[in-house]
Amino acid sequence: MHRRLAQRAALALLLLVRATSADVLPDDRADLFYSKYSGGGMDITGESVLVRKKFTENFAVEGSYFVDKVSGASVDVLSNASVIKDERKQKTATVQYLNDKTTYSLSYINSTERDYISNTTHFSLSQSMFGDLTTLTLGWGHTTDTVGENNGTALAPNVAWLGHAEDSSYQLGLSQILTKNLIADLNLEVITDDGYLANPYRSIRYLDPTNAKGYSLASQVYPDTRTSTALQGQAKYYLPWRAAVTGSYRYFHDTWGITGDTYELDYTHPLANIWILEGRLRYYKQGHATFYSDLFPYADSQNFMARDQDLASAENTTIGAKVTYAFLPDGWKMFKRGTATLDISRISFHYLDFTDIRDFGLPEYQPGDEPLYHFNATVFQLYFSMFY
Amino acid sequence: MIMNRLRSAMIVGVVLLASGCGIQPWVKPYERDRLADPIMAWDRDALSSAYLDHVREAREGSRGATGGAGGGCGCN
What we know:
The complex is a heterodimer.
Chain A: H1 5-18, E1 29-39, E2 42-56, E3 59-72, H2 75-78, E4 84-99, E5 102-113, E6 116-129, E7 134-150, E8 159-177, E9 182-195, E10 203-207, E11 215-219, E12 225-239, E13 243-254, E14 259-271, E15 275-286, E16 314-327, E17 337-355, E18 372-387
Antiparallel strand pairs in A: 1-2, 1-18, 2-3, 3-4, 4-5, 5-6, 6-7, 7-8, 8-9, 9-12, 10-11, 12-13, 13-14, 14-15, 15-16, 16-17, 17-18
Chain B: H1 2-19, H2 33-36, H3 46-57
């Protein structure tokens, strides 16, 4: 399941807007994108194509198509003895209109999987002001999801539709030139959810002396609503030897009791106008949701119960590198230039109150005393971009 | 409560929009060559960033505010 990916794609539109100043639309481009994620029992490959075209200096259209193929399953799904094999297709269409110093963007995103259908509409406007030193962006998105569970197999699916969910997101962004070498950015986003919000493939567990394992599994019970607030600040500085360093921090809190802190540091270094090298470090830490527990004392011990690893106390560290190679500097036929980019990240996940019950248990480990779960993941991206 | 705060912030934004024309830029357009360098873009490849955001969001409880405000370069 790829919950909320469509919402992420909608927010990519905000990135598109900020990829240029608010009073110029971005360049025409076409991208071919390949990605592979491996880690925690999951293998996900992604292929995408994106085309962007300006029809006038004030009007642009963009379309993209993304296919994700998932095989395997994460540890808590495996603990429940089912393996996922699925494919997700996402189509996105965007129009952008520039009027003086204001850019308007409207997009529609459709994402379908065998057991999940999601439709998102997103609108944003971005306004340059104060002599183009400041750019203010306002965004609003709305998503409707239909959530199901595949009780069959990959080849013979049997999907039971469980319910619907809706969310609305509100974004406020402020980007500010501070000096000739320094730019800063402040982003606020509030998201409200309503409906079926649980992951049907994951289970809680509770102590059960009648079970040979010492515990039994049961369905998760989530609240029907969630509201989250995230505030991010970042700054980018141009170093004297033509390189850039970026620092960012994000604070997160939601009505499920999760609090998260994200720190990131990036360094970008060009070489001879042909190569751009980039390195990044990221650290993330979160506290668990109030209704999360690795092991509940008995069945139905709370009105809301979760053992989804995403809601556990956890931390992860990312180290990443990106290399961009510029080719066709003098252009070729309709193309002005092209780039090829390779991006590799290594992420180390550590859970602080989520145990590995797949590989450990009685008689060596009593329920609740199993070792904490951890895993490493590799994220690989390769893409070609042609500008015209 | 949160919605009220957000609404207030948006009102402040609109007021700023309406009153922003009178302020003189302290970094002149001809002083923005470094800010116009591609290495100073907040995000050179939106497709890649959205993908990485998704990878994280699918495994973390936090979400949002990784997009951002408009460019701010004002280089043209």
